[in-house]
Design brief:
By secondary structure, the protein is mainly alpha-helical. The protein is built from one helix and two strands. Bound molecules: zinc ion.
Length: 69
Amino acid sequence: MPDAPRPGLKCPVCHSDMPGPAAEWPSLPFCSPRCKVIDLGRWLGEKYRLPGSGKPEPAGPDHGEEQGS
Ligand SMILES: [Zn+2]
């Protein structure tokens, strides 16, 4: 059987492995507050806009500032 007792966590921003229990990663799903900010910045910058849509989409759900200090 495959030796994969649990799915490995991976930071969606920098794709680094995040070994250990989730409790050790307070910035989940990101590996660090830095990656969290990077992801937030991407959304704010709309760099993740779907290709093909000619116009910028409205802001959408206003999550506002998620700046956990
Ligand atoms: Zn990361």
